[in-house]
Amino acid sequence: MYLIKLILKNSLRHRLRTLLTIVGLIVATVAFGLLQTVVDAWYAGADAASSARLITRNAVSLVFTLPINYREKLRGVDGVRAVAAGNWFGGIYKEPKNFFPQFAIDPAYVAMYPEYLIPEDQLKDWLRDRKGAVVGRKLAQTYGFRIGDTVTLKGTIFPGNWDFVIRGIYDGRERSTDTSAFFFHWTYLNETMKRTAPRRADMVGWFVLELSDPARAAEVSRDVDALFRNSTAETLTETEKAFQLGFVAMTEAIVVVIRAVSFLVIFIIMAVMANTMAMTARERLSEYATLKALGFGQGFIALLIFGESLAIAAIGGLIGTLATLPVATAFAEEMGSLFPVFNVSAQTISMQLAAACLVGLIAALVPSWKAMHVRIVDGLRSVG
Amino acid sequence: MNDQQTLAPDPHPGPPPERRREDGPEPRAGPLHESAREDAPVVRLEEIVKSYRRGVQTVPVLAGITFDIAAGEFLALMGPSGSGKSTLLNLIAGIDRPDSGRLIVAGTDIGRLTEQELADWRSRNIGFIFQFYNLMPVLDALENVELPLLLTGLSRRQRRERARMALDMVSLSDRLDHFPSELSGGQQQRVAIARALVTDPTLIVADEPTGDLDRESANDVLGMLERLNQQIGKTIIMVTHDQRAAQHAHAIMHLEKGELSQREELAAS
Ligand SMILES: Nc1ncnc2c1ncn2[C@@H]1O[C@H](COP(=O)(O)OP(=O)(O)OP(=O)(O)O)[C@@H](O)[C@H]1O
Ligand SMILES: [Mg+2]
Questions:
Q1: Could you tell me if A34 and A94 lie in one domain?
Q2: Is the model more confident about B11 or about B160?
Q3: What sign has the CA pseudo-torsion B132, B136, B138, B139?
Q4: A32 inside domain
């Protein structure tokens, strides 16, 4: 009790210095949490990916397509329960900065993605409308899309202006489900291509395979790729997770930098905090010497310094961690649909708290070692 | 040069069982030990040598000092600046170690104690009074006096009670919740005196306790030390360069060029 009181009183001796240190800790903790969450968001698609689904794509690269007639052959592969086709559209909504993913899909997709929840009647409306589109809740909120609205996308891969009518809005089953995508009928895309660029018709970006038994993923992948070996378009089949990670890998360098910066922030605040504690301990050398003269051991001195350092670090870390949630929400809103899933994970929160405690501990290390080992006579001399 | 002292035969072959008695788990042994204690000096210095190293050269400060201080004494230690008064006091108080020689204080050969044992020993046997008071600025008067009692097994209530009593003895009952910054120099030094006596130590050491005080406050503080000595029989060693302050003691010893002069008995009070 007495000790805790002494520690708290000590930490309030230089109010401004303590306050600035705490502010620094808050900023560092928030920055660390935000950067970690950005990294998480980068991998969110892969994390949410199902292991019951395989993606079959062109073996050369994602840029190359596969003929739609592979669909029938894929259905025949043992272990495949259902097949759906999809294409990346890559259109621009009004301005290039309004980025969100757009997929041309065949209706079989719907049953294969139970994590996307859409009301029955909206689904029916969509299936009936050739130009119909289904959008995620988050996307609808970002751009104010409502059912019945006509949305025009300017094609980049597929030239021209494309009109769609919103027929449904889907929600995510999990918090981590991406609800920022835009889906429309592959047949609409294909029919248009048949008219305008016949050589690019009847092609898809990928096939999604639903497995009857997820445990057989490796075996089925091998069988599928063997089936198309030596054909005009060889395939590469992998789990949805591996497929998503492949996307992320293209931008891995950025993720590495973001990670490095997040730890750098912690390192900097550690240096600042260590300097504060060193300054504090140096000023109080005569007090520590007095305590030692009175018979207090080195442990007591260490406790005072570690206690103060940890108390300051914990307060800053705690406030910073709490502040991360609203800041992340605001950040996600600002970023729009760039990060479809932007949640501060439990792991990030525990890392923030652990980092704050670590900062407190390490900052106290050198000052307390010095204070513990100061010769009483020398320490007392620093009074006058 | 120093080996001479260490190699010399021990001139005071003190009885070994007596030495550790103060630390022993049975503080009240027999009447025989009690009487033995009465006679034994509280402080016994034997050929104490201390020098400081400054760069390559060694500065000798104390060149083989031998003397006793009896229980219940109030001794003033005087001498020119830099003569080693503080050094000597620090050795007696167990916050510094001699190069050679034997130091028996409060019945313990403190040269043999480890740092931790020495710290424990100090907390039980020495009360410190410093020139600049050395109070904890974040603690009020009562808490400052309570501080050394944290090292005892006393309960919080007992600690507070004793701290209050000690502050009462230095007439500061009405300043319990004042912080050092809210007290005058003389009052701060009185708090320090209360802190020094609250553990009921065997010996009180004071290094220039009035060095930072005006005449009136100095007299206050000196009067208090005198009363401590007379009324509760505390043994006190006080370093001072003030002749008038020294007059409050029983005897004065002069330190010059590393040597102690003959003690000068004072008839007063
Ligand atoms: N840590 C140290 N390192 C080097 N020399 C020291 C150290 N401490 C004391 N000395 C030297 O030892 C000598 C005695 O110092 P001490 O402080 O004991 O003197 P003093 O008699 O108390 O003087 P004053 O009256 O000024 O307080 C001085 O010459 C001082 O310079
Ligand atoms: Mg001195």
A1: no
A2: B160
A3: negative
A4: yes
Does A164 share its domain with A109? yes
Amino acid at A54: L
Query: Residue A97: its pLDDT value, please?
Result: 87
Q: Indicate the helix (H) or strand (E) that contains A317.
A: helix A298-335
B80 touches ligand 1 (CB under 6 Å): no
Q: What share of chain B is helix, strand, coil (3-state, %, to 5)?
A: 40, 25, 35
Say yes or no: A257 and A229 in one domain.
no
Place of tokens 């670590």: A358
Q: Give residue B8's pLDDT.
A: 39
**Candidate from B56, B78, B86, B212 with most ligand 1 atoms within 8 A of CB, to mutate:** B86
CB contact under 8 A, A6 and B136: yes
Same domain, A346 and A312: yes
Q: Is the pTM of this model over 0.90?
A: no
A 10 A CB-CB count for A68 gives 17
Instruction: Pick left, alpha or beta for residue A92 (phi over 0 → left; psi -120 to 50 → alpha; otherwise beta).
Output: beta
Considering every ligand atom shown, identify the ligand nearest to the alpha carbon of residue B130 and give its number. Answer: 2
pLDDT at residue A245, as a whole number? 78
Task: Find the mean pLDDT for residues B26-33.
Answer: 39
Tokens of A277: 């504690």
Q: What is the DSSP letter of B268?
A: -
In a domain, A51, yes or no: no
Of A340, A356, A351, A270, nearest to A115 by C-alpha is: A340
Q: Which residue's entry shows tokens 């609203």?
A: A326
CB-based contact B132 A384, cutoff 8 Å: yes
**pLDDT value at residue B2:** 42
**Cα(B189) to centroid(ligand 1), Å:** 23
Cβ atoms of A365 and A298 within 8 Å: the answer is no
What CA–CA distance (Å, rounded) separates A317 from A25? Answer: 6
**Among candidates A213, A235, A244, which has minimal Cα distance to A80?**
A213
Tell whether A299 is within 8 A of chain B (Cβ).
no
**Amino acid A246: pLDDT:** 75
Question: Which residues of A are less than 8 Å from B145 in CB distance?
Answer: none
